[in-house]
Amino acid sequence: xxxxxxxxxxxxxxxxxIDESIRAEVKDLKSRYKSIFNSLSNKYGNEILYxxxxxxxxxxxxxxxxxxxxxxxxxxxxxxxxxxxxxGISYISDEEGQTGQKLDNSLAYKxxxxxxxxxxxxxxxxxxxxKEFKEFEFAYVGxxxxxxMKSPVEVYALSSKGFYIPSQDELIxxxxxxxxxxxxxxxxxxxxxxxxYICDGIAEEVINSLSKAKDLFVTARSSSxxxxxxxxSILDISRKLNVNYILDGSIRKRxxxxxxxxxxxxxxxxxxIIADTIKSDSDTLYDSENQISKSILQYFxxxxxxxxxxxxxxxxxxxxxxxxxxxxxxxxxxxDSDTTSAINQFKKALEIVPDYALAxxxxxxxxxxxxxxxxGDFKENITNAIINAEKSIEADSTIPDxxxxxxxxxxxxxxxxxxxxxxxxxxxxxxxxxxxxxxxxNGMVFLIKGELKRALSELKLAKELDPYSFxxxxxxxxxxxxxxxxxxxHNTYLILLNEDVNRTYxxxxxxxxxxxxxxxxxxxxxxxxxxxxxxxxxxxxxxxLEIYKGLKDEDNFFKTKSLIEQLPENDxxxxxxxxxxxxxxxxxxxxxxxxxxxxxxxxxYLMFLQYDEFWEDYHKHPLFLExxxxxxxxxxxxxIKIESDTKEFVELIISxxxxxxxxxxxxxxxxxxxxxxxxxxxxxxxxxxxxxLRYQNIIRCHRSYIINSASGYTFHKSDNKAFLKNxxxxxxxxVSRSKEKDLxxxx
Length: 747
Fold this sequence. Notes:
The protein has 27 helices and 23 strands. The chain is of the alpha+beta class. The strands form five sheets. A seven-stranded mixed beta sheet has the order 2-3-1-4-5-7-6.
């Protein structure tokens, strides 16, 4: 290792953000960069490979000189005006060859790309060679799998005074958006503990309001709020969130008066751009978030989100109702045991303001959470979620919350019902284009539709908006994997491994990434650190099979094969393992049958086998195509149950459903049975039946009719009246004028 050269790759970043008032100084300083680098180069005896006004790359013989060069360079950049600089240092690896290689293929370059401003990143082998130098201090950051590398690289950061130490979460390629801002939770500077929910609520409402502005990049609540009560500088927070501006504030209550102070800070220099104080009483507290948002938007010269036009006093909300709403939001973020408390607070708000859209949306999300966690009756809770989401939209169609809630509830009620999901997410995105949660779900829409690149683009944007969100990261890892970006997916799951949530799931995903990269021993190391906490942890046996096959380890392969063959066929893990075993043995049809059994659990739809390279041999197999169509398109052999208000029900295969007709307080269900038309009347409304029929091709064509457009209908129009005909079943159904276009497209 001593004979190997060392590469340093440094970058000056984010120059477009430098304030106009100091741009002349920056230009002057840039003209001196080359002379500074040349001077330091002569001092530490290195060869300059590349030197521009923003990038420097050097080749060193001694690792200690590379560190000293980097440290002294930083000292120049820390002077006023502060210039954002980052650098990566590494030995030239065996894969990289000689120094004549392309610089952007070097490990040092790759380290600089994932480096944060103010940091120097190094590899573990380089740090080990510098142990005798007590003047240097290093901190281990984490392991990262680099493209074209055989195993993860140990990454360290120089931790001497003045240098920034990033977390493992920050080791990703990054580029700051010019107008990027994070709103921190406001500080409670009073002794009243109950003021906490007001502080969080005001800050969150400011985030929601700013997120509606186009081209203003706003960090999501779940990431900016993790810094609550943490002793970090504004500069360090801006680095961790990768933003240029921070909005910080505090609220003090004295008697019945609130004093809300806030500051907009430019993280490039630490200066306050805006600093103001708002005095408010309980009646005008709600309007304070509006005033703060207007002030921020005015600075960025963005068009303000337009309020509804039907109410001159649109921003006024009864202060007591607003207080209950904020408490509901506060409880809902904790989930678990506080979900019921959240619902109760939202309901109290609705008792005061019956058309409070945000409260309805909050209730909807709570019921959806309860349903998905199988607390109580699933259908009852998910139906309550839909009803409250629809009430939210009816009360105020200009906010995204109701649409998000309805999208999720209808998606799960309809067993992956895509049309409603896509429709509502699209509307929500138009209202709030910078909302990380909406972007995340929009990415899932593209994934379900098979547009993997667009899905990845949306999830990357969601990650930038909400870098510390578990929900965003776990979906990003999945989409990176399905896009065959296995190194990137590996690093995403490696970060998630630090979470206590779903640890073994992340271990399984890491192993899958390594298997696809043919890094079988690394895959085995990951599987060995799993535990029994994950319900489907036995899926590891199928992965072990693939590992032993890759390693040509026949003894362990046949031991695992024998173990899988003896597993009882009573859980999803067994079906997966046997599908893998049959795949390896070349038994395609049998393997697909096991996959079909596995997909009886809707949770496993999230594996998206139709895009997974591991199952690529099946992607054109007729049985596999039929399986995917039936599970992901909401058509085919799914068994559905339509229930009445009196607990009567009709159970049928979805492809056999023909139509439903409203008959006062009853609904006529018409379906095929043994190729004959069968009718059944249920005591329930057509609206209730519609909520239960959230499937592809099921559409309401008339106020009194719901039809299955895949049941052989043809469109007709006579005397300006449209209708559908099914000649095989002798059916004629009217069509509303507003539905004609949609039906023609479906048919």
